[in-house]
Amino acid sequence: MSKLSEAIASFCEKYALLNKSAVVAENIVKKPVFGCQDCGQCVLSHDAFTCPMRCPKQIRNGPCGGTREKGFCEVYPDRRCIWWLINERSKKMGRQGKLRKYHIPVDRRLERTSAWLNMFAGRILPMDLGKELKEVELIKKDPPPMR
Ligand code: SF4
Fold this sequence. Notes:
4 helices, binds iron/sulfur cluster, mainly alpha
């Protein structure tokens, strides 16, 4: 991101109330709309706006290999595999190119932090709203301070 967005993130993270407000605002929007699981490192814009953390194995780079016939989940046979849904939706939205992105393993230290602030701080990938995959180099940064 930019120096300005980093300054905004660091200002908000300094104050518990601002920090908490960012998490609450994000949950209000993302939980009902996307079934957000609060991982703090959002990849919705790469995965056809379908949260991969709803997979019972929380796999972020494609299905586990146990997917049943017609795209049903190995763990919950009555549900569709989340990666089946991501693939179907990506096809419909013309965003299949985004699925070529390899996502690093989940950093559990970011759970229940604001992905918006993490994005502003440059800790996680920026939102990528275009249809083509944009490769971004991330510089390794510390997690936000504990609250
Ligand atoms: S990828 Fe993470 S932050 Fe984004 S919607 Fe899913 S759990 Fe929430």
